[in-house]
Amino acid sequence: MAWDVARDAEEKQLAEKKRQIKLAAHIHVTGHHVTAWLHPRSQIDAGRNAKHYMEMAQTAERGKFDLMFLADAPAIREGNMKALRRWPQYNTHLEPLTIFSAMAAVTEHIGFVATASTTFMEPYNLARFFASLDHISEGRAGWNVVTTANPNAAANFGKDELMSHAERYEKAHEYVSVVKGLWDSWDDDAFPRDRETGIYFDPDKMHRLNHKGKFLSVAGPLNVERPPQGHPLIVQAGTSEDGRNLASTIADMVFMQEMSLDSAKRIYKDIKERVVKFGRQPEDLLITPGMAVIVCKTADEAKRQHDFLLSKIHPEVGLEIIRTQMNNVDMSMLDPDKPFPKELIPTDDSTHSRRTRELLAQNPGTVREMYERMSGARTSHMLVGDPIQVADRLQEWHEERGADGFIIQPAYLPGGLDDFVDLVVPELQRRGIYRTEYEGKTMRENLGLKRPKSVYAK
Ligand SMILES: Cc1cc2nc3c(=O)[nH]c(=O)nc-3n(C[C@H](O)[C@H](O)[C@H](O)COP(=O)(O)O)c2cc1C
Question: What is the pTM of this model?
Fold first, then answer.
């Protein structure tokens, strides 16, 4: 075949190729459901068990997932300890960058997105850790940029209280630009390592940041070479006004949690418009809602598993879930079988408060119904069904532009991830909307994202 005919055929094939779903596996210790640890298919000591994480990385890679995602906060979750002793996910788990280094060693393709705080880590340390993970994994590291809303974290870092929401976000903008500047400390070709000339590195290709800003003062350069991806992937979670502006300017991916397709579509459109307003292309930022999933061979079986988990929620835990989603206001006096009191509905702009208002507007119900609804993965959309039903919903959200992909949040781990990979992945592949092989080598290549140029590039 002549080259131009072959090229035309290839171009036609590419044009016809369906838009592909991106998938992340959000690994939350024993699982995302509050009672996950009571399920027989969860790993009961997951929070200290490296083997559990390494095996899940291999499972997710078998399912051709783009990445694994780990949430984090530099503090335990305080609150009603009588309730929290039954809800362990937040109070014992491994530090994300450390465990990802072990996971990188037993996988080849899957990416690793670790959460780290712009409020409680020095940017030099953070830039160095993520650059190192990107080298260790040969281009598979990503940073979920969070500003940390957990008030207990402040006391672990010599602070009496958290900065305000607005100030945390203002600092986050400065922080991310410092980290990117540090990642660019060395040009890609700054290390000739030439035994003939005896020159290992070229000082003319080294850049000192010398940053002095409102919040940070960092000289640089970094003592790690430019990461294989240029910049590790940047993910942002938090969809308040400030959060969306941060995502639209600095992020490659947004982790959102929306309970309905309508609100996901609204936010998807809003964020893509902001991206363009900030001078980027819409496809430069992927939007990936969290999806809490229980999938079994039959819908009846999936419902039985869900009912089992719901039946195990102690009412004290239920009220504690509501407290954490509502600015930590004490809810322990509420009667689970009465409607939620209107005067306690939060009015502020934070993501959690907005979603709580939407949840109550959709389904006022009792306090118990409310915490059951939030028990799967906080306020992510919940999918309980057989593989066809789950694939239908994912396809619908994707095709209707509520999502470019999904952060899959299995109810119990590792069982729920095994089920997703064995049951839903083949169905998505059969529909031609999900890869059968990894396309690239780095996480950015697999996600179809550009390798960023150095801030010093001419
Ligand atoms: C989906 C989602 C995931 C988040 N994950 C984390 C996390 O792992 N660690 C953390 O400290 N904060 C996390 N946050 C909190 C955000 O970084 C932010 O501090 C908080 O949501 C308040 O900002 P917002 O009002 O813009 O949402 C998350 C927020 C959302 C919405």
Answer: 0.93
